[in-house]
Design brief:
The complex is a heterodimer of chains A (about 425) and B (about 375).
Chain A lengths: L47 H20 L3 H25 L11 H26 L24 H14 L30 H10 L1 H9 L2 H7 L5 H33 L5 H27 L17 H10 L8 H6 L6 H6 L8 H14 L9 H14 L11 H21 L1
Helix pairs in contact in A: 1-10, 2-3, 3-9, 4-6, 8-9, 9-14
Chain B lengths: L24 H18 L4 H8 L9 E11 L2 E8 L11 E8 L2 E8 L17 E6 L5 H8 L6 E4 L15 E7 L3 H11 L5 E8 L8 H9 L4 E6 H4 L7 H4 L7 E6 L1 H13 L6 E5 L11 E5 L4 E5 L5 H7 L17 E11 L5 E3 L6 E4 L3 E9 L2
Parallel strand pairs in B: 7-8, 7-10, 8-9, 10-11, 12-17
Antiparallel strand pairs in B: 1-2, 1-6, 2-5, 3-4, 3-6, 12-13, 14-15, 14-16, 14-17
Classes of the chains: A mainly alpha (about 425), B alpha/beta (about 375).
Chain lengths: ~425, ~375
C-alpha cells in the first residue's frame, strides 16, 4: 500500500522530535517564492526572525493552556467516555430486538444501528485518537492513558501510535516522508509524482473510505513497504514484520468475533441474529466512511501546503510550527460536529499541539486564526461538505498528470501507457 | 484499556475475589465460560470498564471508596470518613492505607493511618461500615491540604488495602507507652479506639505546637479523666520542643514499657538514639511519616524504557517526581519510603538514596527493584516503565 518510512531506533523518545532545535544559531535560508510545481510558497514573505517570533508566541500559548489544565478538563473526558459507553451498551441492548417489525419497518434496527455508529465514531475520534496522543496522560489515571488505551479499530494501538504520532505528526505534509499524504495510494498534491496507477484513484479512494479501518491497519503495518521490499529485508526486519502482522490479525479476529459473531449470537434469542449482524456491518461502514471523510479534510483540501524533503533539514522550532499550520486545514461547524470529528475539525490547532486536551482546541482557535492572519498566512477552513467535496474533486483531477505548457495531458497518459505496454511485452518475451 | 501491564500502577495489595475463578465442578465451568463471553462482548475494553460505570464499588472492582464526610478536628486537621467498596478486606489497628485522590484533575496517591474501629462498629462519630483517616494540612502538602480544605462528600477516591506493621503486639503488653507528635497521633488513636479496653497500663505522651493543635484532644482528655490512660501533653509554646530527658519525669518507668512512637523525623531519630543508649532498642516501635533527606548528589538522566521517555533530573529530585513530571504513570504511595508502593525494576545505572546518600549501582543481569520515591538518579539509570 505504501513504502515504509525510515524506522527510527525503538528507543527514540516519544512526543518530542529530536531533530528540532529550539533556537537556531545558523542563518536560515529565505524561503523560495515558488515551489516545484510552480505554485507560490505561502510563507515566502516571512523572514527567519518573523518565523521564530511566531514560534515563541505559540510556545507561550501552549504553556498558558497546559498550565491551566485541571478538574474541568478531566470531567470533560470522563463524561465523554461515560456517554460513549452508555450509548454503546444502550444501542447494543436495542439491537437484541433488531428483527422486531412494527408496521413493516424494524425500528430497533434503525435506532440501534444509528446509536452504535455514533458510539463507534466517538470511541475512535474524540476518545481513542486523543487518548493515544497522550492528551490525557497528565491526569495520571492509568485507565485513561496513552500507554494503556486500546481502541475499537482493526489497527492495534501500538502500531497506530508509531505511524501516526511519530511519523505523521513529525513529518506532516513532507512529500516522501509523510505517508498520510494520500496513504501511498492517492495523489492529492500536484507536487506528488503521477503514474498510471493514479488514473484509477477515484476507485481506490472510495474503496479506501469503505474499508478505512483495515487500510489503516495495513498502513500502520507497512504492508505495502514489506511487499515491495521483502527480498531486500534482513531476517530481523522480516521477523518484526511477522510479529506485527500476527498482532494485527489477532486484533482483527477479536474485533470481528465481537461485532460479527458474539453480539449477533446474543440476539439469536429473539431471532435477531441476522439483523444484528447487518447492524454491526453498517455501523462499522458508517464509522469508516465518516472518519475517512473527516481525515481527508485535514491535509488534502486546496490551499494547504506540502513541503520538500530538503526544506525540513535543520528545521527550527518556529519553522516546524509554521509547517504544521500551513500543512493542516480545519472544518467549520457546530459543537456537536466538532465532537463527532474528535475535534480534528481543529486540525491546525491539533497539529500545533498534538498533546493538548481536545476540548481546548476550540478555545484557542480564534487566537491561532488571529496569529496567522496577522502574519498573512492562510488559515484554511470550510464546511465539511465544501472541504470533503473539494478533496473528492481533487482526487478526480489529479488522477491525470499536471498540465504542462505545450503538451496535452492525454498525450502524457498515452505515452505512459505505451511505455508500460512495451515493458510488459519485453517481460513476456524475456 | 484491557492492557494488564498498567495494573502495576494501580494498587496491587487488593486481593480481587473473582466469582467462580477457582470454583470446581460445573458451576466454575459455567462461570468461566460466561466470563469469556463477557470479555468477547466488551473487547477492546474489559467488562469491568462497563461495570465500573454502573457500580464502581462492586465486589471485584478495583478498590474505591466514597467520601461520606470531612470533619474538622483542629484548625488544620480533619477526619475524612470514607465508605469503602465491597472488596474492602479490613485492617489491623495502626495500619495505613494508600488513597488516590484527583486534585485539579491529576491523581495523587498518599498513605494515611486508619482511625476507625476494625470491627466495623461505629466509634467517635464514624458510622458503621465506614473507614476513616485523619490528616493535617501541611504547607505545600497538595493532598493533605486538599483533603482538609476542599474534599467534598460524595467524591469517589481510589483505595488500596490496609498495610503496615506498626501494630500492637499480641498478646497485648502489660505496660505501654505511646509517644506521638502532631499528626503522629493518628495510628495510635486507631489502636486506642480498638484496643484500649485490653490494655491495663497505658501512658501517652503527645506533643503539639499549642493546645489548639492537639488532634483528638477531647477524646484523649476523656480517657485520661476516666483513668483509662495517663496523658501528658508536651506543648511547644509552653514546654518547648520535647526533650526526651523529660520522659524521666513524665513517665518515670518508660524503660519498662513497650513503646509505640510516631511523629516527625527529628523526634524519631532522637528517640531511636535515646532508646539505644538505654540499651532497650527492641522496646521501641517506630512509624516514620517523612524521609530524612541527606545532602543531594549529582543528578543525571533517567530513561523510562517502556514509554521511551528520557528526562534529566537533579540529585535532589526523586525518580518518582521526575517520571511524573515527564508524564509517565508512576506507581506511588506514601512518597516517604515506607510503603513500597512505588517499587519498579531498574535495569541499568545508579541511584542515590535521598535518606542515606547511599549509592546503589546496578551490576547484575537481574532487574533491581528500587523505591522511586526516595531515590534520585546518580549519573544515569534505566527504569522499566
Amino acid at each position: 500500500m505504501t513504502l515504509a518510512p525510515e524506522r527510527h531506533a525503538s528507543t527514540k523518545p516519544q512526543g518530542i522530535n529530536p531533530r528540532l532545535r529550539v533556537a537556531s544559531d545558523a542563518p536560515r535560508p529565505q524561503r523560495p517564492a515558488l515551489k516545484k510545481s510552480g505554485r507560490p510558497n505561502p510563507a515566502a514573505h516571512l523572514s527567519p526572525d518573523q518565523i521564530e517570533t511566531i514560534g515563541h508566541e505559540l510556545d507561550a500559548l501552549r504553556k498558558e493552556v497546559m498550565d491551566s489544565r485541571g478538574a474541568r478538563d478531566a470531567a470533560y473526558i470522563r463524561k465523554v467516555i461515560a456517554v460513549q459507553r452508555y450509548l454503546e451498551m444502550g444501542s447494543r441492548a436495542v439491537l437484541l430486538f433488531s428483527n422486531v417489525k412494527v408496521r413493516g419497518v424494524r425500528p430497533a434496527w434503525w435506532i440501534g444501528t444509528a446509536g452504535l455508529s455514533v458510539a463507534k465514531i466517538l470511541e475512535n475520534m474524540e476518545i481513542g485518537h486523543n487518548v493515544m496522543h497522550g492528551q490525557w496522560d497528565w491526569m495520571r489515571d492509568p485507565k485513561i492513558h496513552s500507554t494503556a488505551w486500546e481502541w475499537d479499530n482493526a489497527s492495534p494501538a501500538s502500531q497506530w501510535k508509531h505511524s501516526h504520532n511519530e511519523i505523521h505528526h513529525t513529518f506532516t505534509n513532507v512529500l516522501g516522508r509523510d505517508n498520510d499524504l494520500g496513504y501511498g495510494i492517492l495523489r492529492v498534491d500536484e507536487d506528488q509524482r503521477w503514474s498510471l496507477f493514479s488514473l484509477f484513484q477515484p476507485i481506490w479512494h472510495v474503496g479506501n473510505a469503505l474499508l478505512f479501518e483495515y487500510s489503516i491497519a495495513a498502513y500502520d503495518l507497512e504492508l505495502g513497504g514489506y511487499l515491495a521490499k521483502k527480498d531486500r529485508m534482513s531476517e530481523e526486519q522480516k521477523a518484526e514484520f511477522r510479529k506485527n502482522r500476527d498482532e494485527v490479525l489477532a486484533k482483527i479476529k477479536r474485533q470481528a468475533t465481537k461485532d460479527y459473531v458474539v453480539h449477533p449470537a446474543m440476539s439469536a434469542v429473539t431471532g435477531s441474529a441476522r439483523t444484528t449482524l447487518t447492524a454491526n456491518i453498517v455501523a462499522n461502514l458508517v464509522r469508516n466512511v465518516w472518519t475517512n471523510t473527516v481525515i481527508i479534510c485535514g491535509h488534502f483540501p486546496p490551499g494547504i501546503a506540502t513541503f520538500e524533503k530538503t526544506s525540513i533539514e535543520g528545521e527550527t522550532r518556529g519553522e516546524w510550527y509554521l509547517r504544521q499550520m500551513l500543512g493542516s486545514g480545519n472544518i467549520s461547524g457546530s459543537k456537536a460536529m466538532h465532537t463527532m470529528t474528535g475535534n480534528l475539525s481543529h486540525q491546525i490547532e491539533h497539529h500545533l499541539f498534538p498533546d493538548m486536551p481536545s476540548n481546548r482546541y476550540a478555545e484557542i482557535a480564534p487566537r491561532i486564526q488571529d496569529l496567522m492572519e496577522r502574519n498573512d498566512l492562510p488559515y484554511v477552513t470550510g464546511s465539511l461538505w465544501k472541504q470533503a467535496g473539494s478533496v473528492y474533486w481533487k482526487v478526480v483531477q489529479l488522477s491525470l498528470p499536471n498540465k504542462v505548457e505545450g503538451r496535452r495531458r492525454r498525450d502524457i497518459v498515452r505515452l505512459e501507457l505505451t511505455k508500460a505496454w512495451r515493458k510488459k511485452k519485453r517481460a513476456l518475451r524475456g | 484499556m484491557s492492557a494488564p501491564s498498567i495494573d502495576r500502577a494501580t494498587p496491587t495489595g487488593a486481593t480481587r475475589p473473582r466469582l467462580g475463578a477457582h470454583a470446581p465442578g460445573p458451576l466454575g465451568g459455567i462461570v468461566r465460560s460466561a466470563r469469556k463471553v463477557a470479555e468477547a462482548l466488551a473487547t477492546p475494553l474489559v467488562p469491568a470498564d462497563y461495570l465500573d460505570l454502573l457500580d464502581p464499588m462492586r465486589t471485584g472492582a478495583d478498590l474505591r471508596g466514597r467520601i461520606v464526610e470531612v470533619r474538622p478536628e483542629t484548625a488544620d486537621a480533619a477526619t475524612v470518613v470514607i465508605r469503602p467498596g465491597r472488596g474492602w478486606a479490613g485492617h489491623i489497628p495502626g495500619q495505613y492505607i494508600r488513597i488516590g485522590v484527583d486534585i485539579d484533575g491529576v491523581r495523587h496517591w498518599r498513605a494515611y493511618s486508619l482511625t476507625h474501629r476494625a470491627d466495623g462498629s461505629p466509634a467517635a462519630g464514624i458510622p458503621a461500615g465506614c473507614i476513616a483517616i485523619t490528616t493535617k494540612a501541611i504547607p505545600d502538602g497538595t493532598v493533605s491540604t486538599h483533603l482538609v480544605r476542599s474534599a467534598a462528600p460524595g467524591t469517589l477516591v481510589m483505595l488500596d488495602q490496609a498495610t503496615g506493621d506498626f501494630t500492637l503486639t499480641s498478646p497485648a503488653p502489660a505496660k505501654v507507652l505511646f509517644l506521638t507528635a502532631g499528626s503522629g497521633i493518628t495510628p495510635v488513636i486507631g489502636m486506642l479506639r480498638n484496643h484500649l479496653a485490653e490494655l491495663d497500663d497505658v501512658a501517652h505522651v503527645h506533643c503539639a505546637p499549642s493546645k489548639q493543635d492537639v488532634i483528638f484532644a477531647g477524646e484523649l482528655a476523656e480517657h485520661h479523666a476516666a483513668g483509662r490512660l495517663a496523658l501528658s501533653l508536651n506543648l511547644d509554646d509552653v514546654h518547648g520542643v520535647l526533650d526526651l530527658a523529660r520522659l524521666d519525669t513524665l513517665v518515670p518507668d518508660w524503660q519498662a514499657r513497650e513503646t509505640w512512637l510516631c511523629g516527625p523525623t527529628a523526634l524519631l531519630d532522637a528517640a531511636e538514639k535515646h532508646w539505644a543508649n538505654a540499651g532497650i532498642p527492641e522496646r521501641l516501635h517506630v512509624e516514620r511519616f517523612r524521609p530524612s533527606v541527606v545532602e543531594p548528589g549529582e543528578g543525571g538522566t533517567v530513561t523510562f524504557r517502556s514509554t521511551g521517555r528520557v528526562v534529566e533530573a537533579d540529585g535532589a529530585t526523586a525518580i518518582l517526581d521526575a517520571g511524573e513530571d515527564a508524564g509517565v504513570i508512576m506507581p506511588s504511595g506514601c512518597r516517604m519510603g515506607i510503603c513500597f508502593g512505588c517499587v519498579v525494576p531498574m535495569r541499568a545505572g545508579a541511584i542515590r538514596d535521598l535518606r542515606t546518600g547511599e549509592v546503589t549501582v546496578h551490576e547484575s543481569d537481574e532487574p533491581l527493584p528500587v523505591q522511586t520515591c526516595v531515590n534520585a538518579v546518580a549519573g544515569s539509570c534505566e527504569i522499566d516503565l
